[in-house]
Specification:
353 residues, alpha+beta, TIM Barrel, Immunoglobulin-like, 2 domains, 18-stranded mixed beta sheet, two-stranded antiparallel sheet
């Protein structure tokens, strides 16, 4: 498998971001990402997809959309839409119908920032996902970097601190989102998890203090979705786009917080009597299954089954677990950074059936 680092969920001046597409590409070229997916609010922009190059470096820009019902107050139930190939914002008033249209169009639908609390100090409302009756979506945005910021700014003074020291913000996905994901998986659904930056590069001011909140380049160094594809990127936009979206659809990816240390080369696999599989796949329990995780660096490593911790290893780079029990197995890893234990890696599950 070949690993592609994707930063997704970001906004330009076409909605409520501060930059234009070439600004995002320039920022990405300064980081370790291979591709970015731009998702402006309720508009599918055209003419920007493709490879952007600088010297010997290139990144692939793909264009999706973040859709929500603009007539609803507050504007909840945001949906990240990838690869639909058409404008779908006109269906936003009915989330289930919207998801169905996306699927019929060959696209992917991820519930955006499922838990996005209010931040009264900055007059930010709660825009969490509410309609949990919906079916047939691709997955959820497990970790949204901007939503997490709202959890640590009870006052404007806190906001000023994090504006100048954004590296202190990220800790882990919002716990309620992790809990909800495990509930969905335990119910028998296949729900892929992705990590989004929700980058806006907002220009904020407090009196004489003016600051860009989470510049694009900073976002691209933090919460990424690492996608495992069957062949290396070729430089052909349509081919590479298909490979990335197929992998996201199948959950062949993991969420990595790359600021403390790169999460490249993390792997989680399972071997059974009929062969081996990776994240997002199913494998029969019959005959026994050997689960293996390998980290790029030593860390606290946890193996979970159906949302419950089976095994915790401290300062380890790998784990092995043999089982004959059906269940949904996934990996979490944690590292200390800036004096705090922080989430580092969240794998998509392997489904032992």
């Amino acid at each position: 498998m070949h690993e592609v680092v994707v930063n997704l969920h970001m906004h330009t001046r076409y909605s409520d971001g501060s930059g234009i597409h070439k600004d995002l590409a320039a920022a990405a070229l300064k980081t370790d990402v291979d591709a970015i997916i731009v998702t402006d609010h309720n508009i599918l922009t055209h003419g920007f997809e493709g490879y952007y190059k600088e010297k010997n470096k290139k990144i692939l820009m793909l264009i999706g959309e973040e859709v929500h019902d603009q007539a609803r107050n507050p504007q909840k139930n945001h949906l990240l839409v990838f690869n639909a190939g058409r404008e779908v914002a006109t269906f936003a008033d009915d989330p289930q119908r919207l998801i169905q249209i996306v699927r019929e169009s060959g696209g992917l639908a991820f519930l955006a920032h499922p838990n996005d609390p209010e931040a009264p100090a900055f007059r930010e409302t709660d825009i969490s996902w509410e309609d949990w009756s919906v079916q047939n979506y691709t997955g959820i945005e497990l970790w949204n970097a901007l939503s997490e910021l709202k959890t640590v700014v009870p006052t404007k003074l806190h906001g000023a601190f994090y504006a100048f020291f954004p590296s202190f913000v990220a800790s882990q996905p919002i716990p309620a989102t992790l809990t909800k994901w495990d509930e969905l998986l335990a119910s028998g659904r296949r729900v892929a998890a992705i990590g989004g930056s929700d980058a806006h590069a907002l220009q904020m001011s407090m009196g004489a203090i003016r600051r860009t909140i989470f510049p694009y380049e900073f976002h691209f160094r933090t919460v990424n979705t690492h996608v495992l594809i069957s062949e290396p990127l070729s430089g052909a936009v349509d081919t590479d786009k298909r490979l990335i979206y197929e992998a996201l659809a199948n959950g062949q990816c993991f969420v990595g917080y790359d600021l403390p240390a790169s999460t490249r080369n993390f792997r989680f696999t399972a071997q059974g009597k009929d062969g081996s599989v990776s994240m997002g796949a199913e494998i029969p329990a019959k005959g026994g299954v050997t689960l293996q995780a390998k980290l790029p660096l030593a860390a606290e490593l946890r193996l979970l089954k159906d949302g419950q911790v089976l095994q915790t290893l401290k300062n380890q780079q790998a784990c092995i677990h043999i089982t004959t029990e059906p269940g949904v197995y996934r990996i979490e890893a944690y590292r200390n950074y800036l004096g705090k234990r922080r989430g580092w890696i969240y794998s998509n599950p392997i489904y032992v059936r």
